Amino acid sequence: MAHVIAVVNQKGGVGKTATVANLAWELVVMGHSCLAVDLDPQGSLTISLGFDPDALDGDTIYEGMVLPADHPQHRALHPQLVELTGLALIPANLDLAAAELDLNTQYQREFALKRALAPLQEAFDFILIDCPPTLGVLAINALAAADAVLIPVGTNYLSLRGLQLLLRSISMTQQQINPVLQILGIVGTLYDRRLAHHTDVMQELRRLFPPQGIPVFESVIARSVRFEEAGMVGKPVVAYAPQNPGAEGYRQLTQEVLAHYARP
Ligand SMILES: Nc1ncnc2c1ncn2[C@@H]1O[C@H](COP(=O)(O)OP(=O)(O)O)[C@@H](O)[C@H]1O
Ligand SMILES: [Mg+2]
After folding, report:
1. I need a labelling partner for 26 at 20 to 30 A (CA). Which of 33, 54, 189, 258 fits?
2. What is residue 141's predicted lDDT score, i.e. its pLDDT?
3. How high is the pLDDT of residue 238?
4. Ligand 1 atom nearest to CA at 133
């Protein structure tokens, strides 16, 4: 059975997509099979792994998850292989923007993703889900399908705001629809060690959350222009600029995630 990790934060631009792309890539490099799932209608993960969201021809998360099984355009989820790697991807495009409306009329709509992923559970060691920057029906589906949540947090002051709201949603999901869901940890992203307030925010994260039972990863992801460059060529930073401190951060994060699952 795959470990299913949802990468969640309702704030946009905090490195959710970068975290999924780099962690997924690195898990494969380290010998684990991995499926990355794009659950954002903007298709950023799809693009950052080298696919064109407008040329997917019906093989997206939408057909498999949102369209009911008796719909003529329904297709079981069919992972695409990312070029030159063993990494698999369920892509997304703007069709997914209709999910909120389409799922509204469906029975147990919180579990649409869990149902769609069920046949793939045995085929992978890890399934990573890239969430949209909202706490709507798509993010709730990710929390319902996952057994763990990873929370990227930008290391500036504004990023800390909104974290309580996210933690409340996670806690409600645990109580009402997914009791096995655990918080894998918070990872600081977009970190610039030259900026005093970034160091302050990291300290604040480490002071506030571990006492509440919410781990904060030792790994911190440095800010670097290489991320945007890598996005433009459709590769994660760990593949595009392996020497970059941001890539090193993601390699360390991957080790920490693996160490977590290696524990008895
Ligand atoms: N560590 C980083 N340093 C610099 N830029 C980054 C970093 N991580 C992500 N980015 C860039 O910031 C933007 C937002 O990142 P992204 O991963 O898409 O965030 P989210 O998925 O949370 O919206 C993208 O343009 C991405 O290339
Ligand atoms: Mg994103």
Report:
1. 54
2. 97
3. 97
4. 23
Q: What is the model's pLDDT at position 5?
A: 98
**Ligand 1, pocket-test mutation among 190, 224, 251, 252, most atoms within 8 A of CB:** 190
End-to-end CA distance of the chain: 16
User: What is this structure's pTM?
Assistant: 0.97
| Residue 156, pLDDT score | 85
Helix, strand, coil distribution of the chain in percent, nearest 5: 50, 15, 35
List the chain residues with pLDDT less than 70.
Answer: none
Nearest CA to 47 among 33, 60, 34? 60
Report the nearest atom of ligand 1 relative to the CA of 189: 1
Of 64, 32, 78, 25, nearest in space to 48 by CA: 25
Give the chain's domains with CATH numbers. Answer: 3-262 (3.40.50.300)
d(CA 130, ligand 2 centre) in Å: 7
The confidence score (pLDDT) of residue 57 equals 83
Give the per-residue SS3 of 161-174.
CCHHHHHHHHHHHH
Q: Is the dihedral of CA 203, 207, 210, 214 positive or negative?
A: negative
Is any ligand 1 atom within 6 A of the Cβ of residue 16? yes
Tell me how far the alpha carbon of residue 67 lies from the centroid of ligand 1, in angstroms. 30
Ligand 1 centroid–CA 44 distance in Å is 10
CB 153 within 8 A of CB 162: no
pLDDT attached to residue 97: 94
Q: Please give the Cα distance from 93 to 106 (Å, whole number).
A: 21
> To test the ligand 1 pocket, which listed residue (128, 189, 228, 233) has its Cβ within 8 A of the most ligand atoms?
228
Phi, psi (rounded to 5 degrees) for 51? -105, 155
